[in-house]
């Protein structure tokens, strides 16, 4: 695992760290922009992230402003919490990231 601008980036097969104990996300569940932990009535649940939330995390990871993020260059998908998939441009690979209360995939070096 590497930490880039406060975002944890994992190699394939590495276990993702969360601040809160959470169950695995089933592989049949898909989120285009990753997952976040939400609390309802004192219990924690996984919920899909919105595009805007994803853009802000990508911007932080890349060290750029949100308006500079081109989702066509950095976006790859996540099925459950077991892996990432998608085609990335150049010498980039689809990798898992986390912030402690959210997770998803990004094309990274």
Task: Provide the fold topology.
Elements: E1 2-4, E2 7-10, E3 30-31, E4 35-40, E5 43-48, H1 51-62, H2 71-74, E6 77-79, E7 83-85, E8 93-98, E9 102-108
Q: Can you walk me through this structure?
A:
This protein is of the alpha+beta class and 109 residues long. It has one domain (2-108). 15% of the residues lie in helices and 37% in strands. It has 2 helices and 9 strands, in the order βββββααββββ. The strands form 2 sheets. It has a 6-stranded antiparallel beta sheet. The protein has a 3-stranded antiparallel beta sheet with strand order 3-6-7, with no helix packed on it. It is globular.
Would you kindly provide a brief summary of this structure?
The chain has two helices and nine strands. With 109 residues, the protein is α+β, with helices and mostly antiparallel strands. The longest helix is centred in the middle third of the chain and has 12 residues.
Helix content: 10-25%
Give the overall shape, derived from the CA principal axes.
globular
Q: Order of SSEs, N→C?
A: EEEEEHHEEEE
Strand line-up across the major sheet: 1-2-8-9-4-5
- Going by helix content, strand content and strand pairing, the class is alpha+beta
Total DSSP helices: 2
What is the average per-residue confidence, as pLDDT, rounded to a whole number? Answer: 83
Number of domains: 1
Major beta sheet summary = 6 strands, antiparallel
| Spatial separation of the terminal alpha carbons | 13 Å
- Poorly predicted spans: none
- Strand proportion, as a percent range, falls in 35-45%
Radius of gyration: 13 Å
- Please give the number of β-strands: 9
């Amino acid at each position: 695992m590497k930490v880039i601008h406060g975002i944890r980036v994992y190699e394939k097969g590495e276990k993702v760290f969360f601040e809160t104990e959470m169950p695995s996300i089933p592989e049949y569940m898909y989120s285009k922009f990753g997952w976040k932990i939400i609390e309802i009535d004192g219990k924690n649940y996984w919920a899909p992230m919105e595009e805007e939330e994803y853009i802000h995390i990508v911007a932080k990871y890349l060290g750029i402003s949100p308006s500079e993020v081109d989702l066509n260059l950095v976006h790859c998908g996540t099925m459950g919490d077991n892996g990432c998939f998608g085609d990335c441009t150049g010498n980039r690979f689809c990798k898992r990231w986390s912030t402690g209360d959210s997770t998803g995939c990004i094309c990274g070096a």
